[in-house]
Amino acid sequence: MIELLQNLIDGLGRGSIYALLALGVAVVFGVMHLLNFAHGELITISGYAAYAAGQQGWSWYIIAPLIVVCAVVSSLVIERVAFSRVRGESDFTLLLTSFGVHFVVSAVFLLYVSASVKTYPRPGWVTNTYSLGPLNIEVFDTVVIVVTIITLIATTMLLQRTMFGLALRAASADFDTARLMGVKSDSVIRGAFALSGLLAGIAGVFWLMRSGSTTPSAGIDPMLKGVLAALIGGLGSLRGAVLGGFALGLAEVLLRSRLPDSIASLTEGVVFVLIALLFIFRPQGLITVAHAERV
Amino acid sequence: MFPSLGRDVAFPVIGSVLLFSAFVGAGLIYQNWLGGAAERLVTVMLIDAVIVLGIQIYVGNTGVLSFGHIGFGAIAGYTFAVFAISPAEKAKRIPDAPFGLAEVDVSSTAAVLIAVLLTVAVAFVIGVGLARSGAQSGAVSATVITLALLFVTHEVARNWPELTGGERAGLFFPIGGKLDTRAPIYIALFGALVVARVYAQSRSGRLAAAAREDNLAARAMGVNPLVQQMAALLISVAVVSVGASLRVYEDGSLLPQNFFFNYTLLTLVMLIVGGRNSVTGALLGVAVMTAGRELARRLGQDGFEIFGIGLDGEPLDWVFRENLQTVFLGASMLGFMILRPSGLLGDWEFDEWLRSRFGRFRAGGRAKAAAAESRPEPLPELESVEPSVLEAHGIDVSFGGFKALSDVGLIARSGEVIGIIGPNGAGKTTMVNVITGLVEPSSGKFSLNGDDVTSTPTYRLARLGVVRTFQNLRLFAALTVRENVEVSALIAASHRQGRTLIDVDSVIAEADLWEYRDRRARELDYGNSRRLELARAAALAPSFLLLDEPTSGMSDLESAEMIEQVRHMAATVGAGVLVIDHDLNFITGVSDRIYVFDHGEVIAHGSAEEVQADPLVRAAYLGTERTV
Fold this sequence. Notes:
- By secondary structure, chain A is mainly alpha-helical.
- Chain A has one domain (2-281): Orthogonal Bundle (ABC transporter involved in vitamin B12 uptake, BtuC).
- In chain A, a hairpin with a 2-residue loop joins β2 (129-132) and β3 (135-138).
- Chain A is 72% helix and 4% strand.
- The mean pLDDT of chain A is 88.
- Chain A is globular and about 60 Å long.
- Chain B is 56% helix and 11% strand.
- Chain B has 25 helices and 14 strands.
- In chain B, α3 crosses α11 (225-251).
- Chain B is elongated, with a radius of gyration of 29 Å.
- The mean pLDDT of chain B is 86.
């Protein structure tokens, strides 16, 4: 029971980051029907910005907001340079475009910074834990969970209470109709990328502070988590994405602690198999978004 | 199996011989020119070509983006290595291999065979999963399943050192020395080319391509896309497995990362740069990307030099750096997706070009005259057909809270033209969707010749003879007019036996599309597109032809012609016709009997006069007071 509770808290910490990443993926998918395999690159880019800032002797509390800003700006730049040019193209083209962005960004860092691991300063309390009864809780996890909850509430308010949120939700439901109703496609798509970048930035702070280092291919992992969590939740559903993020985090923690030692190192593989099975038996994900074939 | 042996087998094989010669010839010239290191580059290119052609068979024909083929390559590669390495060598590397594999001793050829069989078996299981996930062109969940496969094979390879030597050590082995001759590679490459081209022209390949272009329309023409996708997957994986085995043999070592993300990127870029829908394109992509990457690598290493003027250390130094080839790969993928997503060649196929040149040559420049001469005669109308009856009873359909149809009944017989009319939103298209299996009714029964066919899948209904056209055109855009019609003809040949089948040429001529027969469907204008939809449906020799607003967007004159064509086509195949429209004059002009829909109900039915006299219909159409 205690162990389960411990797992639950660890899973919540991990899942929070995934939820933020997945929400960013889902927001963009909603307006562009683009499954963004380049989402993780926002974290790679921010990671190198953090490295550069660290070289200047800046401390982590300046670097953290820098990461967020950097992710938003990168998201907008990538949209302008790449995704704005393939709007309305086939799903195949969109998928490979995002993969292309992913590879170009990591290759550029490989070219100009080298393949070696780069580090930057992070808060000293990252690995501290405190006890709550029989539970051992990481200070960092606590911060992550609290900030994530605040972010999710703020995002919900943004989506429910503002004109931009209304436009975004309308565009997600039916892009063409939303345009006919006067939603400006350019601004809603850019807004979606900015929001997606912001969420990736916040997730990126957690991700980067926890890992403490970055490499040219550091984006693959967060990208996979975000994309998979969004898919688990049911693409197109924002609530589903958040749910998918928490589900993925929890599943990882549970598997890691429960699998027999001999295959514990295969956790990632097992998670993948489970996800593949989920798609096979429930291709629409956990939350079904109403969708019918148009004839 | 093949619509035409000359076109679908002979020309692809001749084309493959020529392409193979050109590709290998170019490699040999380069190799003789530079010698030494270039030899290895060319060998690698030839093996890459086998693998890329393998991927093309699946991705090109089905349109499903797969990241998993290199995962299949990993499975094949490890299987091959574990079987091909001699027991003495295995005792050093992987003494604890499971299933007694450490003692197994087979020849390299047998090892390739085992690798292919095992990998194809795995592909079958994955294929079932892909089918369940609703794989179709551009489908995201299918792509993610293939991605999962890639990661899972990688994880297993890393974490199963007893079998794979693990992440660091890997498997290093001389299987019998390096490949001392390229003969096996040449054989594999030629085989891959022929298989890829012949598959694309085969029945399965054509049906898969139809589903790639429009999954829904393909199903409505009787194609079961899942079966064709599975066939494409298995053949594709077999070719990739051979390529992967060759690669392992040639490398003489195997690490998990050899068959992972980077190689996936490389092979996919090769595929899309040339044009993923074209076998010629895939081969061209391999050549272009191999050359480009080699150039980028050399530039990155040695800097830039033209006519002895070195720029090393000069202004361009910031570009010409180590790892330039990685940027080159990523930029190629991104650049092509943005500027030319269909690749260099698009749908262009070398042997098709060869065939059209050959055809023109044979016609001796009198192409037009020859074409006019061979235009088929008009088709006779059938005197009598086996009568068919289509019946629907008490059909209810609701979407959420909205009742689209309530208690709708309908009967249609062969030889009759039934009109379905009603204002927009009356439920006409929904009714057609129910009859063709696209929408499942919440209650009610629907039967064909007395057999209950409620909730029968669309493609089965089409094979039983219930065939439709679409309100918004759904042609197989990248296929030619003739190929569009051939899709139905292929289905008819295997599933509509016992009916009078009309040949492809006649039906094309009948639809006034004879001079456009080799044009791609996307190049047709609106009227011709509509006629092609009709021709495609008629070639299935349907018992019932359902036309969803066949004249929408046409002028009165065109509409009149269309009606004549519909009547004639239906008579030549002996089909009953159900035609939907909201134009009262048009419907009363063509129909023997009419059903009037309003708000999801049948408010009247009978002959044109009866319906026009009905007070409810007058109310719905003319807006007078209801007098019920």
